[in-house]
Amino acid sequence: MPQCPNCQETEDQIKAGKNPSGSQRFLCKSCRRKYTPEPNLNGYSSDLRKQAILMCFDGQTFRSIARKLGVNHQTVANWIDAYVAQSARAVYKHPKYLIFD
Hints:
Shape: elongated
Structural class: alpha+beta
Oligomer: single chain
CATH topology of the largest domain: Arc Repressor Mutant, subunit A
Order of helices and strands: EEEHHH
Number of strands: 3
Strand order of the largest sheet: 1-2-3
Number of domains: 2
Mean pLDDT: 86
Radius of gyration: 22 Å
CATH class of the largest domain: Mainly Alpha
Largest sheet: 3 strands, antiparallel
Distance between the termini: 63 Å
CATH architecture of the largest domain: Orthogonal Bundle
């Protein structure tokens, strides 16, 4: 059984459901605290994002990329927009928001 991070007790640990990312939650009967010993990360991996960007550079549409990677097409569009904005700021060394007088 896992060890409670609050009271360091290893006895009387019971399963208490799962969190939104699918990790097992536990309840310590000694201190009544819930905890997740090994949490899963939410979101998509950076490798998947890079793969989508490379596929876009190869000329594929957002929808075809989304179908092949198993994500929503709007997610792919958001990744591409974020990559282009980040790249443009790095190349031109502009801040995120420009104010013109």
